[in-house]
DNA sequence: CCAGACGTTGTT
DNA sequence: GTCTGG
DNA sequence: CCAGACGTTGTT
DNA sequence: GTCTGG
């Protein structure tokens, strides 16, 4: 699953990578992105790609308030096409959510929950793209909120020791298909990532706190005796 | 027909 | 809003 | 995802 | 314990 992630690339780099024009997206490294916060999202609209801010936590159209139901930070790929909450979004409002990596927690008896940082194994600062769906929600008073959820799938073999779910990661050659720019077949992209794409290491439990934000959050834990 | 759900995660 | 259950 | 709240009364 | 908020 994916309940916390990072994005440390500058907006200008995202514009180049995704061939998209950035809107009102805050340009700052983020090492601890939490649900309900604004995230950068890539959408295709009128023949061009745009990077826009959205609230992380999908609000179905029928909610009377943003908390009229559970916080939908994820959408299961196995059922997304049929669920009333996500069906329309799955068909017509897919998006990509750029990330540098994400966190998972393991619960080991006697050790409490231990956070891991999971990121591309390639030695550069590779940005990955989560599959997402988005929804514009209008409050009764007329206020508009644009929201998004990250699509999840079964964990691949290499991630399974840490968690049994993982975000769907869309390879660059498939971005156009997921964004709806290249015909049908987006559903086939909702599968676990290749086994060699990601690597991981333990990080400090400081990341548990939502207010923590600094580069040391993703630093490997010092070796312990 | 109307009333009520509509969702994810993990854990038991 | 749409779908399911009674 | 984790952290933090979770409640009432009256008085200021 | 469960629910809400970030």
UniProtKB/TrEMBL annotation:
Instruction: Keyword check for Secreted, yes or no.
Output: no
What species does this protein belong to? Halovulum dunhuangense
UniProt record similarity statement: Belongs to the SOS response-associated peptidase family.
| Keyword Hydrolase set for record | yes
Query: What EC identifiers does the entry list?
Result: 3.4.-.-
Write down the Gene3D superfamilies for this protein, in alphabetical order. SOS response associated peptidase-like
Name-wise, this protein is: Abasic site processing protein
MF terms from GO for this chain are:
lyase activity; peptidase activity; single-stranded DNA binding
Keyword annotations for this protein, in alphabetical order, are: Covalent protein-DNA linkage, DNA damage, DNA-binding, Hydrolase, Lyase, Protease
Per the record, the GO terms for biological process are: protein-DNA covalent cross-linking repair; proteolysis
Known SUPFAM superfamilies for this protein?
BB1717-like
């Amino acid at each position: 699953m994916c309940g916390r992630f990072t994005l440390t690339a500058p907006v200008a780099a995202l514009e180049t990578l995704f061939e998209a024009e950035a809107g009102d997206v805050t340009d700052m490294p983020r090492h601890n992105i939490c649900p309900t916060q604004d995230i950068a999202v890539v959408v295709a609209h009128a023949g061009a790609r745009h990077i826009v801010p959205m609230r992380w936590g999908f609000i179905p159209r029928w909610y009377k308030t943003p908390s009229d139901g559970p916080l939908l930070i994820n959408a299961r790929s196995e059922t997304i096409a049929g669920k009333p909450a996500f069906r329309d979004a799955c068909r017509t409002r897919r998006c990509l959510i750029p990330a540098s990596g994400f966190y998972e927690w393991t619960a080991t008896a006697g050790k409490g929950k231990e956070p891991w940082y999971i990121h591309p194994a390639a030695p550069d600062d590779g940005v990955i793209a989560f599959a997402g769906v988005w929804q514009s929600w209008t409050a009764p008073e007329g206020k508009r909120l644009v929201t998004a959820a990250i699509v999840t799938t079964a964990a691949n073999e290499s991630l399974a020791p840490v968690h049994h779910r993982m975000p769907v990661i869309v390879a660059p050659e498939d971005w156009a298909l997921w964004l709806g720019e290249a015909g049908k077949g987006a559903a086939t992209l909702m599968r676990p990532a290749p086994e060699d794409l990601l690597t991981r290491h333990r990080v400090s439990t400081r990341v548990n706190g939502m207010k923590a934000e600094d580069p040391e959050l993703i630093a490997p834990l010092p070796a312990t005796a």
